[in-house]
Amino acid sequence: xxxxxxxxxxxxAMTFVKAVAELEEIVMRxxxxxxxxEPRYESILGSTDHILKFNKYExxxxxxxxxxxxxxxxxxxxxxxxxxDQGKGLEIKTxxxxxxxxxxxxxxxxVMAGDAFMAWxxxxxxxxxxxxxxxxxxxxxxxxxxxxxxxxKIQAPQELVDEDHPLQYKPFDHxxxxxxxxxxxxxxxxxxxxxxxxx
Length: 199
Ligand SMILES: O=C(O)CCC(=O)C(=O)O
Ligand SMILES: [Fe+2]
Prior knowledge:
Elements: H1 7-34, H2 38-45, E1 48-57, E2 66-72, E3 78-83, E4 90-93, E5 99-101, E6 110-113, H3 115-120, E7 130-134, E8 140-149, H4 174-184, H5 192-197
Antiparallel strand pairs: 1-8, 2-7, 3-6, 3-8, 4-5, 4-7
The structure holds 2-oxoglutaric acid and fe (ii) ion.
2-oxoglutaric acid (AKG) binds at residues 53, 55, 69, 74, 81, 90, 130, 132, 142, 144.
């Protein structure tokens, strides 16, 4: 887009990612604390990468809803979604298989568990299925920050594994899983993590 670079844009994007990463840390500390595993979370915190995506969904103009993004779970550890304008678009599937519309405001951030967080919590927190539906005449813009764990294997803390909660996923390398999902699984399977490292 900018062959000779765009320093201001990069600085702004970096500032945004840093702020979102701080938000993620606050939320994850609360979740980890509630399971009694905050020190375990601290040990992966230093190995977390963040990737920012800018999404544009074009309006098809009509009143009929159109699929903007197919249903999926994220392959990230955690994903945080922010939307530029007030409105609907993002939909999340409930346990009883109903799609719930999320009416986002520009001051809202949606925190979603990805496949890697589901494995780390030994299935206690599930990765949510979500999709984007487009309706009306306005294009939709969202900014999505995903976190990914490098250098160490994703492994459920021993505190979260016991007789009532047997281990669900073997320890795995996050980036190798992303690679598997993208190139080997070809993004086809609904639950690729189960096939990749399910017990
Ligand atoms: O645009 C959104 O609200 C969601 C995007 C999303 O699910 C993704 O990029 O994985
Ligand atoms: Fe997603």
